[in-house]
Amino acid sequence: MFVFPLIGGILCIIAFFTPAMFAPMYSGSYSYWFWGMININRLSFNNERIDILIVGIVVGALILISGIKLVYSANLVRTEKKSFTDQNKTWVRMPLFAILSSITWFFYISNAGEGYFVPPGMDVWYYFYMDIGLIGAFSGGTLTWLGYLFNRIIRETNVMSYFITTPRKEIIIPYKKFPTPEIQTTQQLETPNFCPMCGFKPGTTYKFCPGCGFKF
Amino acid sequence: MTITFYFFDYELAFLIITILWIIQGFSLIFGSKLLKNDSNELRFLKNLIIAGYILTLWFIAHFFLPTRMALYSYTEFEENLFFTITLMIYSVIPNSVFIIIGVALFLFFYKNNHLYQKPLVYTSILFTGGYILDLFNSVLIQFLIRFDVYVYLDLIDLFLGLKILSLCMILSAVVILILFSIYLNNRYFMIFSGLFLFQLFYMLFPILTHL
To answer: Which of B204, B100, B210 is nearest to B157 (CA)?
Structure first.
């Protein structure tokens, strides 16, 4: 079970260190990190719009903390120092922080980025593409949640019973039409050679004595 | 003819995505081998291992392919050859690799008579169908851009819709694979399906913002 929080946590940590969005340009790619770093052929920091910078730093910090916490808790479960149920709160809250942070940043940039990243009146996402930073944080959180949810569903409900189907026809053994030799042998052993009441010898196939009607 | 290749001209994102694909390929191989060790009765498991090797080898080879190519002073034959090679490398082979994985999954689920067979057979059909649709879509786009770009511009919304539909088909199949991998408690399949979900999000979300 620790695999999904581990992958989700690693994706969140990767998200912090990689660009959240990029725009392909003639002279290279314009990349923008959560925490304000920009890159057009050289690295520099953006400090012109403090509001975007503050939102980015808060979002980036939340995503980084979520990632580290998820990896740490997954490692505790992997080494069997903690159990699955001990980590319930961590595996619900931390992915939620990552998902909400990435969604908040997306909508903030969609509104506040107009007139700064793109000319006024233009859509930011017309020029820019989402990069690993944004998608990694969102998918890391989603993956951890899905893993946790599916694990609980499998443990606590009988959802897998809906998946059960009957075997294919050719696999079914034709048991009734062709009785196996073991059953005949058992019948032979159970039928006596003579009637204990009248001494008649019925053979092997009778359930009642033909002489006196005694039930064998 | 003058042809120029640009090698290793990668962005950070491309490097990370390639590394994750290679990890996925190895996890498919190890997951299948783990299943093989668990049970000798499972049939068609070898196909899944071979599909894992193909996936891994393709993404290792993909790393060494040129990122960009430029062609100058060419004849019509050379132009057609160049078009065919780019079509193969960037559309046909990547989709074919995943179609092979889908067929291997289908054979594995169909031929093994375990209890959870039927939904997983549908899942593998959904997976393969999604990649076949994507292959058809991308090849058609390449041909239209090459021969009649105005028809492509007229039908661009249709192609975008087909792309989103194919990705959604694959995404739903992968979510069921995640559920099954948790049930099997096979950690390599969990890595495979989990990273697959991330890769699909990475392909799907940029398209959705451009709608």
So the answer is: B210
Q: Please tell me if residue B16 touches chain A, with a CB cutoff of 8 Å.
A: yes
| Closest to B201 in 3D by CA, of B182, B174, B176, B177 | B174
B68 touching A, CB under 8 A? no
Question: Is any Cβ of chain A less than 8 angstroms from the Cβ of B20?
Answer: no
Closest among B91, B105, B92, B126 to B50, alpha carbons compared:
B105
- Compare CB distances from A3 to B115, B187, B209 and report the shortest one's residue: B187
Domain spans, chain B: 2-209
Domains and CATH numbers, chain A: 3-163 (1.20.140), 179-216 (no CATH)
- Chain A / chain B CB contacts < 8 angstroms: 87
CB atoms B201 and A138 under 8 Å: yes
Helix (H, G, I), strand (E, B) or coil at B70: strand
Distance CA B118, CA A45 (A): 55
User: Which tops the pLDDT comparison, A76 or A160?
Assistant: A76
> Could you tell me if B111 lies within 8 Å of chain A, comparing CB atoms?
no
pTM: 0.83
Tokens of A93: 């809250």
Contact between B204 and B164 (Cβ < 8 Å): yes
Q: Which of A99-103, A128-132, A162-166, B155-159 comes out lowest in average pLDDT?
A: A162-166
Nearest to B169 by CA among B117, B110, B128: B128
Quote the mean pLDDT of chain A: 79
